[in-house]
Amino acid sequence: MRYGVIGAGAMGYRYGVLLQEKAGIPVDFIETWDPNREQVQKQGGVYVSRDHENRHLVPINIYAPEDYHGHPDVWIVFKKQMQLADELERDAAAGLFHPDQYVFSAMNGLGHFEKLAQYFNPDQMLAGTAMIATVLNGPGDVDFMGPENGEAMHMAPYNDQAPDETMEEIYADFQRATLGPEMCGNWLGMCLTKVAFNAVCNTLCTMFEINMGQFGSYPGAAEMAEQLFNEAHDAAARAGIKMIEDRGQQVQSVLDSCVKLKYHYPSMYQDFSKGRPTEVDYINGYIARLGRKNDYPCRTHEFVTHEVHLAEQMRQYRN
Ligand SMILES: NC(=O)C1=CN([C@@H]2O[C@H](COP(=O)(O)OP(=O)(O)OC[C@H]3O[C@@H](n4cnc5c(N)ncnc54)[C@H](OP(=O)(O)O)[C@@H]3O)[C@@H](O)[C@H]2O)C=CC1
Ligand SMILES: CC(C)(CO)C(=O)C(=O)O
C-alpha cells in the first residue's frame, strides 16, 4: 500500500520515515509550512537523528498540496489540533482526498476525528495514540527520541467494529515499520486514556519548563498525577466512556514514561518554548468540558488550562 503523510513535522516524519526505511513502503509527504518543505527540497531530504546521534539525510518526496497528484491508499495525519481544519480544507480544495482512501491519525488531544469525518468515510478511519517521543529541531531536521524498537502505539477502528482487511494491512505495515502497534476496540476510551496521560505529562512539564525525567524526579509527581487522573476518570465514567487503563495503571505509566523518556520535552513544551499556542484546550480543556457536560466539574483541569493560557500570554513580558 502507498501512504501519504499530511504534516511533515516531528510525528509525520517519524511515521513516514520508519514506514519508508524499515518497511520499504512508498511514502509521500504533504506540507503546508513553506520553510520546512523548501529546506527538505534544498537539502534533498530530511535529517534524522536518534537521541541526538547518527544524524543522517533520508531522501523523501515532499509537496505542497496544490503540487501533489498522487493517490495514496492511506493518509496519515499529524498536525497540531488548531491547524487541522484549515489543513483539511486546503487539501480537499487541492483534490487530495478520494472515496477509496483510509485515514489514520494519532494526534494528541480530542476533536480531530469529527473534522476528519467531514472528508472521510467513518468506516475507513482509524484512531490512534502514540507513546512515541519526537522533536522537530527545525525545518527538515527531526530527532527520534528513545531506543530503536522502543516505539509503542494503539490503534482502533473509528466505527468500533472489528478491523477490516485494509486496517489489518495498515496494522501489519506499522508492525514492519517498528512502530509497535497494538490493535484495540473502543477508540474513544483509547484516545481519552492518552488525553489523560498528556494532561499530566505535557501540561505540567510545559508549565514548569522541564523534561519528563525532571518531573518524574519530584517526590510529589505520583500524587499530582493521581489528582488529575481521578478527575479525568470520574468525568469519563459519568460520560459512559470506558478507559483502557485504570487510574493506578495510568499513574504507573506516567512514572515509567518519565524514566523511559526522561530527556523528552513533551510536544506541548516544544510549542510553548517556541512562542506558539499550545494544544491545552484539546487536552485538559477537553476533560474539563466533558466533566461540565456531565455535571461533574473537573476543577483541577479547569484551573490548569487557565494556568497554561496565562503562561502563554505572559511570554510577551519576557526578555
Ligand atoms: N512530538 C511528539 O513527541 C508527539 C506529538 N504528538 C501529537 O502529534 C501531533 C503533531 O505534533 P508534532 O509532530 O509534534 O508537531 P509538528 O512538529 O508538526 O509541529 C507543528 C507545526 O508547528 C510549527 N513548527 C514546528 N516546528 C517549528 C519550528 N522549529 N519553527 C517554527 N515553527 C515550527 C509548524 O507550523 P506553523 O508554521 O503553522 O506554526 C509545524 O507545521 C500533535 O497533535 C501532537 O500533540 C503525539 C505524540 C508525540
Ligand atoms: C511523547 C509523549 C507521550 C510525551 O508525553 C507525547 O505525547 C508528547 O510529547 O506529546
From TrEMBL:
It is an enzyme of class 1 (oxidoreductase). Pfam families: ApbA, ApbA_C. One of its GO terms (molecular function) is 2-dehydropantoate 2-reductase activity. Keywords: NADP, Oxidoreductase, Pantothenate biosynthesis. It comes from the Bacteria. Its EC number is 1.1.1.169. Residues 187-310 form the Ketopantoate reductase C-terminal domain. Pathway: Cofactor biosynthesis; (R)-pantothenate biosynthesis; (R)-pantoate from 3-methyl-2-oxobutanoate: step 2/2. It catalyses: (R)-pantoate + NADP(+) = 2-dehydropantoate + NADPH + H(+). Gene3D superfamilies: N-(1-d-carboxylethyl)-l-norvaline Dehydrogenase, domain 2, NAD(P)-binding Rossmann-like Domain. Signal peptide: none annotated. SUPFAM superfamilies: 6-phosphogluconate dehydrogenase C-terminal domain-like, NAD(P)-binding Rossmann-fold domains. Residues 4-148 form the Ketopantoate reductase N-terminal domain. NCBIfam families: apbA_panE. Catalyzes the NADPH-dependent reduction of ketopantoate into pantoic acid. Belongs to the ketopantoate reductase family. This is 2-dehydropantoate 2-reductase. It comes from Fructilactobacillus hinvesii.
